[in-house]
Every structure is written in structure tokens, then in C-alpha cells.
Amino acid sequence: MNAFLESLPKIELHLHIEGTLEPELMFELARRNDVTLPFDSVEQVRQAYEFEDLQSFLNLYYQGMNVLYTEQDFFDLTAAYLKRCHDNAVMHTELFFDPQAHLARGVSISTQVAGITRALDEAEATYGITSGLILSFLRDMSEEHALETYEAALPYREHFIGVGLDSAEVGNPPEKFERVFERARSDGFHVVVHAGEEGPAEYIKGALEVLKAERIDHGIRSLEDPELAKTLVERRIPLTVCPLSNVYLKTVPDMSAHPLPALIEHGLCVTLHSDDPAYFGGYMNANFLAVQAAFDLSRDTWRTLSLNAVEAAFVSDMRRDALR
Ligand code: ES4
Ligand code: ZN
């Protein structure tokens, strides 16, 4: 069964490119850019990856990405991730980047987008992996800053397919970003929103009704509101669930307590992804194997999860047929 899961063709729909920064590359880029890291070794970095909650992870995540400066850095980061995609039988990936986190260090959106898209183009040519880039706003910053960032990104609009919302959830409800999401939607961008990871089901409702999210990232607290769950089922709104992320951030006590089986049983359009694989114990295959070890899902259920991802992907009809 593990060999079956490892070779199963996959679609990644919830992945933060900055969350693929492995400690080895972090050190290499620190050396290249003369950045002093608060760690002495790769082992020490890995030992620091003990998280209590989302915020304790975000602190290390934002610190780690401080080594990214040049177009080549963004290329190297993305190329390393795409090699992992190839090794994990990922055929299509829709990845987030956090432009505001890099603008804060004086790195232009042009530099970020150029490095990331050069790697994406190269992976399509060498591995046949297709992709889409999603510009994610940091919800713990102001909506004004999100709007300014959106404006700064518009000259590169042909390089991204949608907008997302991530970072510290509790206290930063979706409603805070109504104007910028309305703007992006009217410009023809896809809309996805992190909701119901640490935050309540109420935030999922806000993401859906106010921001008009086409997919909910995480959404593992959906069943806490039966009326909401019913809407999600009826409207076939995908939930991009990241099992190892939820365990590492103690959103669930352990994998056996994960609501995944209940979400599937409920008829929700669940898909499985890796979120920040350098920080959460592994890439797509690691997530699939961890789920299988905990729940022993049938091949039929795996087939359903795969087809859900085909349905949830932002691709052309032709590419969707090829992925099926
Ligand atoms: C994130 Cl796991 C998670 N949750 C919210 N925002 C994020 N950004 C990167 N990883
Ligand atoms: Zn995420």
C-alpha cells in the first residue's frame, strides 16, 4: 500500500514556498548573503522545530526566510521544492508566496516573482510539472498594506493565478480584508483563504460569504457548524487539509484525533497537502503515509481524495482531463 501511495499521481494545492526552506539551504543562503543566523548548525535548526501552536511556528518561519534576497535565492528555493515534487509524483502544484514578508527586507516583488517563475517554467520543461502561483496576504498586517502590496504586484499579474490569506488567524477574521479581496476578484483572480485552522468555524463562514473563497485552506473545524458543513458539501467547496501541519502545530492532539475521516465521511471535498514541509516532517508522500498509518484508508477513498484534488485545481479543462 505504501508503494501504491508513493507512486500515486498527486496535486499539491496548499504549499507555502517559504515553508520549503530546508535548513541546509538556509545555511547556504545565509553564507551567500552574509546573514547571521541565530543557529550554529543544521541540527540545531531542526531541534528548534518544536512548536506549541501556529504563532510559535510563524516566528521561526519568518526568521528562516530572512536569508532570501536575490532572484537566484528565490529560484534555488523553488527549484529545490520542485525536485521534491518530482520525487513525490506531484504533477501539478499551486503554491503560495508571502510578498509582504520579503518587501519588509527591501526585496521587490519583481525579484520574488522572477526567481519563483523561472524555476516553475524550468520544472514544466524538465519534469512536465504544471503550476500556479498564489499571492498570499498576511492577515496580521493591515488591509491597507495588503492593498498596497496588491497594487505593487499588478504589473506582474500574468505570473499569478489568485490571492490567498495566511499567517496568524485568531483575531484576524476574513472580514478585515473584504475590500482587497473584492478588488482581486473583480480583476479575475481566484480566491482562497486560510480559515478554520486555529480559528473558529465562524471564520470559514466569513471566508466563504464575505471574501467569496473558492477553496478553504485547512477548514478542519468545519464540522463544528453543521449548517456551514452542509453549505460546503452542497457547494463542493474544497478543503485543502494538511495533516502533518495540524499535528506539528498541535491543532489536533495527534494524527489519530484528526477530523479527516469525519470530514470525508461527511461528503466534504477534502484534498491532502503539505503546507510547510521543511518544518512539518515531510512533503506530500510523508503526509499520505502518515494518514494511511493512522486511518488505513481504502484504495477507493484514496481515489476519491485524488479526484477531489483534480476537481479543486485551478487548471484548464484540457489539463484537468490529463490529471484525471
Ligand atoms: C502557515 Cl500552517 C500556516 N498557517 C497560516 N499561515 C501560514 N503561513 C505559512 N504557513
Ligand atoms: Zn497554509
Percent strand: 5-15%
- General shape: globular
Radius of gyration over C-alpha positions, nearest whole angstrom: 18 Å
- Supply the CATH architecture: Alpha-Beta Barrel
Helix content: 40-55%
Write down the secondary-structure element order: HEHHHHEHHEHEHEHEHEHHEHHH
Under the CATH scheme, which class? Alpha Beta
Compute the number of structural domains.
Answer: 1
Query: Based on the structure, what is the oligomeric state of the protein chains?
Result: single chain
DSSP, total strands: 8
User: Which structural class fits the helix and strand makeup?
Assistant: alpha/beta
Write the CATH fold name: TIM Barrel
How far is the N terminus from the C terminus? Answer: 20 Å
Bound chemical compounds: 6-chloro-9H-purine, zinc ion
Q: Mean of residue pLDDT?
A: 98
The major sheet is characterized as: 8 strands, parallel
- CATH superfamily descriptor: Metal-dependent hydrolases
Strand order of the largest sheet: 1-2-3-4-5-6-7-8
Domain Adenosine deaminase: 9-324
Site (Important for catalytic activity): 218
Binding site for substrate: 276
Catalytic activity: adenine + H2O + H(+) = hypoxanthine + NH4(+)
Describe what is shown at a glance.
By secondary structure, the protein is α/β, with parallel strands linked by helices.
Describe this structure in words.
The protein contains 16 helices and eight strands. Helix 9 links the parallel strand 4 and strand 5. The model has no long low-confidence stretch (mean pLDDT 98). It has 324 residues and is an alpha/beta fold. It is 49% helix and 13% strand. Strands 1-2-3-4-5-6-7-8 form an eight-stranded parallel beta sheet. It starts with a helix and ends with a helix. The chain has one domain (2-323): Metal-dependent hydrolases (TIM Barrel). The protein has helices at 2-7, 23-33, 42-48, 54-64, 71-87, 99-103, 109-127, 143-153, 178-186, 201-209, 226-234, 243-248, 260-265, 284-295, 299-312, 317-323; strands spanning 10-12, 90-97, 130-138, 162-166, 190-195, 215-218, 238-241, 269-272. The structure holds 6-chloro-9H-purine and zinc ion. It catalyses: adenine + H2O + H(+) = hypoxanthine + NH4(+). Belongs to the metallo-dependent hydrolases superfamily. Adenosine and AMP deaminases family. Adenine deaminase type 2 subfamily. InterPro entries: A_deaminase_dom (IPR001365), ADE (IPR028892), Ado/ade_deaminase (IPR006330), Metal_Hydrolase (IPR032466). Its EC number is 3.5.4.2. Its cofactor is Zn(2+).
